[in-house]
Amino acid sequence: xxxxxxxxxxxxxxxxxxxxxxxxxxxxxxxxxxxxxxxxxxxxxxxxxxxxxxxxxxxxxxxxxxxxxxxxxxxxxxxxxxxxxxxxxxxxxxxxxxxxxxxxxxxxxxxxxxxxxxxxxxxxxxxxxxxxxxxxxxxxxxxxxxxxxxxxxxxxxxxxxxxxxxxxxxxxxxxxxxxxxxxxxxxxxxxxxxxxxxxxxxxxxxxxxxxxxxxxxxxxxxxxxxxxxxxxxxxxxxxxxxxxxxxxxxxxxxxxxxxxxxxxxxxxxxxxxxxxxxxxxxxxxxxxxxxxxxxxxxxxxxxxxxxxxxxx
Length: 312
Ligand SMILES: *[C@@H]1O[C@H](CO)[C@@H](O)[C@H](O)[C@H]1NC(C)=O
Ligand SMILES: *[C@@H]1O[C@H](CO)[C@@H](O)[C@H](O)[C@H]1NC(C)=O
What we know:
Signal peptide: 1-24
Bound molecules: 2-acetamido-2-deoxy-beta-D-glucopyranose
Keywords: Calcium, Cell adhesion, Glycoprotein, Membrane, Repeat, Signal, Transmembrane, Transmembrane helix
Helix content: under 10%
InterPro entries: Cadherin-like_dom (IPR002126), Cadherin-like_sf (IPR015919), Cadherin_CS (IPR020894), Protocadherin/Cadherin-CA (IPR050174)
Order of helices and strands: HEEEEEEEEEEEEHEEEEEEEE
CATH architecture of the largest domain: Sandwich
Main location: membrane
GO molecular function, one term: calcium ion binding
CATH superfamily of the largest domain: Cadherins
Largest sheet: 4 strands, mixed
Number of domains: 3
């Protein structure tokens, strides 16, 4: 009975095997198992090997001329470090001796990174808005690209691509390491209402991979422009009996700001015998002779637009 118990004695000694295999290893690559060798020949030479079930490797047994056998791992399907960094398998072998001897060895495979992932921005388009005249150094936004690889293959630097105009690159600074975009020039709404930037993220792999994104920065107006008054035409002298309602000057007003910042009210702050009329807010304003005899005023300007009678 004692003999029976020890019929299969695990006395074949195997050292654990450790492999470092890059994830870019091509299917068909072979990795000899040093420990799975048997110097015995004849019936005691190793008879069979078995590999625990796994996704990537199969076992290949080679027989030398002298009849001794050795085993090698053959990669069958590609490895992917991003999916599985390490895998363990058990190699079992049984010899042909009597009694049979068997042994196991632990095979540990560490998958090394290859630069097989591109940097990816967390947004393909970033939007930000900025008030004009924002001071230099103002943080506009922070880009964020990540790379699933590791080490230098995942280490990212940011830079403007050729699609970002020189003018825009003059106004914004991009930190290559942090991805922060800050103001470094003058933001003038009247000059540019929005800026578009194109940035690439590049890893530091031996054969670097790139990811791209677009950034749109809208500029919001502040009231930074004075209204401008231009006298388009005027009579420098007028007869004293000039008829009421005669146009004596056309005045243009403008303001480069938008919205309420661009609205302009005109007033004459001296007592002069003229009044002005705004036909439309945006059209020239007509300086007209003060209406001394309101009854003689027909209530229309020289273009035939109805006007409000001024009060005196
Ligand atoms: C960058 O994006 C990744 C993936 O979307 C996210 O996990 C990470 O927290 C982000 N980092 C920052 C600083 O926003
Ligand atoms: C301009 O005139 C309008 C109409 O009289 C008035 O409502 C507005 O407050 C004025 N704006 C300024 C800046 O004086």
